[in-house]
Every structure is written in C-alpha cells, then in structure tokens.
Amino acid sequence: MNIIVRNIKVSDYPQVSKLIIKTHKISFGEIYPEQLVNAFCEKYSVEKLAEKAKEIEYWVAEDRDSKEVRGIIGLKDNELRTFFVDPDYQGKGIGKKLYVNLEQIAKDREIQKIVLVGSPLGQPVYKKFGFIKTGELHKEKVGISYTDAVMEKVLM
Fold first, then answer.
1. N or C: which end of the chain has fewer CB within 10 A?
2. Calpha distance 108→86 (Å, rounded)
C-alpha cells in the first residue's frame, strides 16, 4: 500500500464522512450503546464535515494506487481533532503517518504543546505517540453519560 498524506479536498468529504461513520459503528460500537454511536455519527455528515473544515485544518491518508482515503486527522490551533483510520486498515502505519505529519506541521508553526480529548479507544494510540493524560472530561449525549480523556504532548 502506497500511502500519501495530503490536505483534504472538498471532493474527499463524502468518502471521509463514510470512513468516520464506519469507524464509529465498528470501533465505538464495541464500547458504547448504539444510540450514542448514532449520535456521534450525526456529527460527521458531509454537510457537517464541510462546516468543521472551515475551522479545522484536515489532512487525509490516501492510497495512491486505489485513490481511496484510508484516514483523516485535523488540527485546530494546538488541538488535535478528528483522528480516524479505516478499521480495515488499522495497524498498518497509516495513523502514524498522519500523526507524524501533523506533529511536524505543529513544530513548524512553533506550537509548543498539542492537546486533545480522546475516547477510551484512542487513548492507547495517543500514549504510543507520547501523549500523557492530564484529566477527564465527563460528557452526556442523548441522555447517555460517558468520559473522555484530556491529553497533551509537549513539543518544545
């Protein structure tokens, strides 16, 4: 697989939306009730992704051979946002390529610290990239309570 990381294009939005929704249903479906997973998915319709892209800078991992998007990562100021890899392609270094690209951009911009709010599924991945848990964020959506981790990584 020949993966490149590039800026997202408007033409990617439908594919990225499907990738994020698929990832939520497969991965998050293992730890959250279906009603909560569906509420997470609603945040990533093509229209809502287009709105988010006005505030968040996104990069995608594209398979050069198939031209399919296999992952996405975003940065808003110093906050890592929207980090997903297609479940069928996890464990193949795609997330690492996306993260290394984002961290280099952050360093080039002289960002001193990257922060994020991560789900229980994402926390081990973020720890692998050098993030430390600094707190918890208790949330509620569709009447269901859940907890995410607040994490950070000092760059400089």
1. C
2. 28
